[in-house]
Amino acid sequence: MRLILIPLLAQHRTSREYNNVNVYNYFFYRLYCWSAQWKNDVAPPEFKAFAIVSAVMVGHAILFVQWVELIFGFRIIALLPKYSVYVAVIVFAVPNYFILLYRNRYKKIISNFAPEPPQLRRRREGPFGFKFT
Q1: In whole angstroms, what is the distance from residue 94 CA to residue 44 CA?
Q2: What is the pLDDT of residue 119?
Q3: Which H/E stretch holds residue 93?
Q4: Structural domain tally of the chain?
Q5: Is the dihedral of CA 52, 96, 47, 8 positive or negative?
Q6: Which of 18, 60, 76, 81 is the most exposed place for a label (fewest CB within 10 A)?
Q7: Helix 20-36 vs helix 45-72: angle between axes, to the nearest 10 degrees?
Q8: Distance between CA atoms of 132 and 9, rounded to whole angstroms?
């Protein structure tokens, strides 16, 4: 089985300019579309996408700290108190809230991308545009 990454960003962009903000917004847009498919869920899709983006960023921060521990040979995470996990989640969730949800900014982000055609939606196996062949 081969893993093929479909260049979804190139298919859905209205402009050809790519930068980190556009990739971040597109990641949020894809998660929003993916979570909007569940009709009987209680949480709105913008909040689910926001929570996933925040969790991924916390995971990246933990991975970075683990790399620092591995390279320099000293322990950081084991010495931190348990409440530091909550602090890390808050540190990443608050800026994401203001970037993505505050004053309905998610509507502007979603409107920047063309709606996905039904053929592409059926073909997609996962939320991030991976197709297994």
Answers
A1: 18
A2: 67
A3: helix 83-96
A4: 1
A5: negative
A6: 81
A7: 130
A8: 18
Question: Is 125 within 8 Å of 4 (Cβ atoms)?
Answer: no
Q: How far apart are CA 43 and CA 47, in angstroms?
A: 7
Q: Which of 12, 39, 11 is nearest to 111 (CA)?
A: 12
Between 129 and 121, residue with greater pLDDT: 121
Q: Kindly tell me if the per-residue pLDDT of 3 is higher than 50.
A: no
Take residue 128 and report the two structure tokens written for it.
Answer: 């991030």
Q: What residue type is assigned to position 97 of the chain?
A: Y
Query: What is the Cα–Cα distance from 53 to 51, expressed in whole angstroms?
Result: 6
Structural domain boundaries, residue 45: 3-132
- What 3-state DSSP class applies to 40? coil
Contacts 24+ apart (CB under 8 A), 56-65: 57/92, 57/96, 58/88, 58/89, 58/92, 61/88, 61/92, 62/88
pTM: 0.72
Six-digit token pair at 77?
């995470």
